[in-house]
Predict the structure.
Amino acid sequence: MKAFYGTTLPNPLMLGTAQYPSPTILEQAFRASGAGVATVSLRREGAGGTGQTFWAMIRDLGVQILPNTAGCHTIKEAVTTAQMAREVFDTTWIKLELIGHTDSLQPDVFQLVEAARILTEDGFQVFPYTTEDLIVGERLLEAGCEVLMPWGAPIGSGRGLNNKYALRAMRAEFPDVPLVIDAGIGLPSHAAHAMELGYDAVLLNTAVARAGDPIEMAQAMALAVQAGQLARQADPIEPRDMAEASTPVVGKAFLS
Amino acid sequence: MKIVLNGETRDVRAETLFDLLVECGFSGRVATAVNEEFVPSSLRIGRELKDGDRIEVLSPMQGG
């Protein structure tokens, strides 16, 4: 498994922390999945210091923290959010989201590249939420990113891998870059497919948090990414158009 | 002095960002920005506030 900015993860599952029915279920889902990375965010501190309680729980999970810049629409906003996150979470990792379209939450890749450059120069290790566009990927690498995170489908849509051809091309184009499918996963089969394509990790949130039983779904996702990873390593067969008998013809009895 | 704290107009006595956090009861891990500029925790004590400043105090939250 490739290292992410020098860190080797225990498994290829990165799990979000939002939308769970309760903090207890969130904690149990994490433990059930064995996910090595938790994505988190920053929001205005409310009365009662709810953020501090959340932080204590996440810290106790003992996983790698990946703060995001979710909801940011401008470079300035994203850079400032990243700076604040670095201080609060005490990490140089940042999941850089620069949203360009309200309905699809599609990343604004032009601003994304510039923000990635600014943050890299400031010492951040950037995980950019991007599209499957190869040229944008190249630009992000030139800007200093050492990881790319193309979307599978729009955030929260659960549609799986919308453009498998392009995602396969991306894997082929950047063979040595850690690639993460970020967003759009709805089912374990989607996560397995991402790993079968040769991706290094899958980042998901809604599919687990909004499932009827988030703990079971977290387990299912963990098994799926492991199955997909093993399958990729095992060098799967290529699909073919015509049937090919698997049982030997030689030695078949003549009975008609 | 009137400032805007996390989107709400407040009348406060504090004259620095550090004092404002104390006055408003913030503790633990928070990050601060004044007028859309990040202010590291080490600089809060010397960061003077003025009437109309917009202050953001953010803390860890669930995210995807």
The first helix of chain A runs from residue 23 to 33. Chain A has a mean pLDDT of 95. Chain A is about 40% helix and 15% strand. Chain A touches chain B at residues 16-20, 26, 39-45, 49-52, 54-55, 58, 67-68, 70, 76, 80, 83-85, 87-89, 155-156, 205-206 (CB under 8 Å).
